[in-house]
Amino acid sequence: MNEEIGRRLREAAEAHQPDRDRMLARVHRGMAGTDAPRRRPGIARSWPKVVLAGSAAAGILAVAGLAVAGSVQTAPAHPDGETTLSVPSPSTTPSSRPTGGSAPPPATGHPGRTTTARPSPGSPSPAAPAGSRVSDGPLSAQGSVDPHSTVYWAQSALTLDVAQPLTALTVEVRIAQTGGVQSTGQWQTGPADDFAVTAQESDGAVVYRWELKPGRTVPAGEHLFAAQYNHAAGMRDPDPDSYDVKATSAAGSYALQGRFSRAK
Question: Which residue, of 20, 47, 73, is where some domain finishes?
Answer without folding.
Answer: 73
